[in-house]
Design a protein that fits this description.
The chain has one domain: Rossmann fold (3-Layer(aba) Sandwich), CATH 3.40.50. Helix content is 41%, strand content 17%. The chain is built from 12 helices and 10 strands. The protein has a 10-stranded mixed β-sheet with strand order 3-2-1-4-5-10-9-6-7-8, with helices on both faces. The radius of gyration is 19 Å and the shape is elongated. The two termini are 15 Å apart. InterPro entries: Rossmann-like_a/b/a_fold, Universal_stress_UspA, UspA.
């Protein structure tokens, strides 16, 4: 079993939007809990027509937002040049987490033109959080962290980071596995069941078995296991209404490929009611780092 990503620092992409400021506030709260510095990054074009650069003003506003949300957190600022998604993806190689405001594109628009948020989520080498909320900035509280579990290697990475984050936030963790009749064909003659009680209990016990190492490592995290009938994107979107964070794994598909084969992470990026953490399968582990 791997252990959580050991990159250093929480990087926040700052573009001057209100969403980015709220993302910075949220990231600062998490950084304080994790004992990490926060890196406010405003990426500007390599050249400027009028010779002016608003980066410092943008970062000053972001730092003020951070200081207004929480004290005693180390804040670092940088203004690299380049394309935002590429710069942030490069920074993800050493970061513990990337935090961004919500995407301003629809799912269809993300398929036909670049969305920096979607691009970073699909290519970063550390977890990426896209900040979303229906009620503006809210600091970490007693609401649960929700993680989608499907038994795959991609899901295992999400579970790993979900436990670590829930422990830092002192939040309960809800592990959810979803199913439909079509997804149970490998379980005997599942498609013929009328009473799914045995199947649901089987999946719940599997989830407990797969997460036993994490429960030992994070004994203070209160974990509940649920097996829900329905498509994962629909179930997790509903859960986002009462969660403080939803964590999912991702294959890192392009928006077009995700639209063709389906992707819970893409749907959550565009529609979740709370922040979403996307964890790709190749994230570093402590065993790999050492």
């Amino acid at each position: 079993m791997g252990t959580a990503n050991v990159g250093h620092g929480i990087v926040v992409g700052i573009d001057g939007s209100d969403s980015a400021l709220d993302a910075a506030r949220w990231a600062a709260c998490v950084a304080r809990r994790l004992g990490e510095p926060i890196d406010l990054v405003h990426v500007h074009p390599p050249t400027s027509d009028n010779g002016t650069d608003p980066s410092e003003a943008v970062l000053t506003a972001a730092e003020a937002a951070v200081r207004g949300a929480i004290d005693r957190v180390e804040v670092r600022r940088s203004t690299p040049s380049g394309k935002p998604d590429r710069v942030l993806t490069d920074l993800s190689r050493e970061a513990r987490m990337i935090v961004l405001g919500h995407t301003t594109t629809t799912e269809w628009q993300s398929m036909v033109r670049r969305s920096d948020v979607v691009s970073v989520a699909n290519h970063a080498e550390c977890p990426v959080v896209t900040w979303r909320s229906r009620e503006g900035f809210q600091p970490p509280d007693g609401r649960p962290v929700v993680v989608g579990v499907d038994g795959t290697e991609v899901s295992a990475g999400a579970v790993e980071h979900a436990f670590a984050t829930a422990a830092a936030l002192e939040a309960p963790l809800v592990a959810i596995h979803t199913w439909t009749e079509q997804s149970t064909l490998t379980y005997g003659e599942g498609s013929r069941f009328t009473d799914w009680t045995a199947y649901v209990e089987h999946r719940r016990e599997e989830m407990k078995s797969h997460t036993s190492g994490h429960t030992e490592r994070f004994p203070d995290v209160e974990v509940s296991y649920r097996v829900e009938r329905g498509k994962p994107d629909i179930v997790l979107l509903e859960e986002s209404k009462s969660a403080q964070l939803v964590v999912v794994g991702s294959h890192g598909r392009s928006p077009l490929a995700a639209a063709v084969v389906g992707s819970s992470s893409q749907g959550l990026i565009h529609h979740s009611c709370c922040p979403v953490m996307i964890c790709r399968a190749h994230h570093r582990s402590e065993t790999e780092a050492h």
